[in-house]
From TrEMBL:
Residues 9-57 form a coiled coil. This is RUFY4 protein. The lineage of its organism: Eukaryota, Metazoa, Chordata, Craniata, Vertebrata. Residues 109-161 form the FYVE-type domain. InterPro entries: RUFY4_dom, Znf_FYVE-rel, Znf_FYVE_PHD, Znf_RING/FYVE/PHD. The gene is Rufy4_1. It comes from Columbina picui (Picui ground-dove). The keyword Nucleotide-binding does not apply. GO terms for molecular function: zinc ion binding.
Length: 165
């Protein structure tokens, strides 16, 4: 019986030692898990802070985009208004000039000593040219050199070449 008691006591001691080892291992595991939990909480706080910052920046960017879009729309409205003003002004000027005819030079100039366009006197330094189209006498300023064909007055040149005016 004492041997049996000694064997039971030894078995109980061995079982207690094993339980202490398991308890120690479980405590280490709990400590490790608590450390992981603490790191996870820190990560969560960091990510939550980063998310809040990103959301705040996105809202600021959206507000800036909205303000810029409003400025651009206002600029477009202003430009459209200015375009309408210019079109009205152009139409008004066109209506004013619609009835005005450009004076044609006569085939026989009234005064051979004056330019048919600007009425300037032909003198020693002011050369006179014959327009090759209407044959009027014009000065250098009121004529255009058309190459081999000679010179012609500005009015005839503009009538023959409307795209250059």
């Amino acid at each position: 019986l004492p041997q049996r008691l000694a064997a039971l006591a030894a078995a109980a001691r061995e079982e207690a030692r094993q339980c202490q080892q398991q308890l120690q291992a479980q405590r280490q595991e709990v400590a490790r898990l608590q450390e992981q939990l603490s790191r996870a909480r820190q990560d969560r706080e960091r990510w939550a802070s980063a998310l809040q910052r990103a959301q705040r920046e996105a809202l600021e960017r959206e507000a800036m985009r909205g303000a810029e879009q409003a400025r651009q729309q206002e600029l477009i409205r202003d430009m459209k208004g200015r375009l309408l003003e210019l079109l009205r002004e152009k139409d008004a000027l066109w209506q004013k000039t619609e009835g005005i005819d450009t004076p044609r030079s006569s085939s026989a100039p009234r005064d051979a000593g004056l330019c048919a366009r600007c009425r300037k006197d032909f003198r020693l330094l002011s050369r006179r040219y014959n327009c090759r189209l209407c044959h009027s006498k014009v000065c250098h300023t009121c004529s255009v050199d058309v190459g081999k064909q000679g010179r012609c007055c500005l009015l005839c040149y503009q009538q023959r070449h409307p795209q250059t005016t």
